[in-house]
Amino acid sequence: MRPKTARCPGAEERLRATVATHWPVLQELGLAEGASLDNLLFVATAEEAVQNADFVQENGPEREDFKKELFAELDAAARPDVVLATSSSGLPVTNIQAGLKHPERVLVGHPFNPPHLIPLVEVVAGDQTGEKAVLDAINFYTAIGKKPLQVKQERLGFIANRLQAALWREAFALLAQGSATVEDIDLAISQGPGLRWALTGPFLNMHLSGGAGGIAHVLKHLGPPMEVWWDDLGHVPLSEELNARIIQGVEDEKAGRSDEDITRKRDKALLELLKLKNSLPEI
């Protein structure tokens, strides 16, 4: 959706093409009875989109000015009891809800790409968000098969993106310093800790690596070396030269493969991983 003054040309065609592309994976994942591409409704204005909605998920550009304008329209058009969730990747929802008539129903509902497969949704309240809206959002995401996580503090980037940013910062630094190539870094994660992180998070992984002594043993014996590593972690500003190296490195890693082919194979593997995780007791 775009504010009424700036409708995006070709939006409906792109939407329908995107949903159709992902439909086979969604069918394999499992759809509700009666689900059909024919049920997809496109409307031209925000008012039309939300006037009969029971929950609103906004997925506009990551710009605070845009979201504030759009949420003013949504707030005026939707029923007062309907949650208005923004998919912002890190913007403070407190700023977005400021000045609205019903700020208590505005919050962050941040999914992760590809959102039709990745379960996590971060739920973040702003200064004026009510407890009922948070509970309603968590219940809604849970009902559609997601794994909602309520973020305890409103911080830039929330939780998952801050963790990703920490990894990206060191990845960029290693590349800039000449310690590794783009492909080396991707391999180090995808064939190393990334496999474990798909099953357990960083703290439980650390605990399991400590043997009989668990995380207490790791903290005692590897804590001091880790502090040395932390002090040695790099930080480099993005530059045209570094950006060019990253872009070229990704092209080299792709080795002529199309983004569509990589995405298709990734989604297929993700689907199989999700099926496996869902078939096993939670770790």
UniProtKB/TrEMBL annotation:
InterPro entries: 3-OHacyl-CoA_DH, 3-OHacyl-CoA_DH_NAD-bd, 3HC_DH_C, 6-PGluconate_DH-like_C_sf, 6PGD_dom2, NAD(P)-bd_dom_sf
Occurrences of domain 3-hydroxyacyl-CoA dehydrogenase C-terminal (ranges): 157-223
Oxidoreductase found in the keyword field: yes
Domain 3-hydroxyacyl-CoA dehydrogenase NAD binding: 35-153
Keywords: Oxidoreductase
Pfam annotation, one family: 3HCDH
PANTHER family: 3-HYDROXYACYL-COA DEHYDROGENASE FAMILY PROTEIN, 3-HYDROXYBUTYRYL-COA DEHYDROGENASE
Protein name from the UniProt record: 3-hydroxyacyl-CoA dehydrogenase NAD-binding domain-containing protein
Species of origin: Deinococcus antarcticus
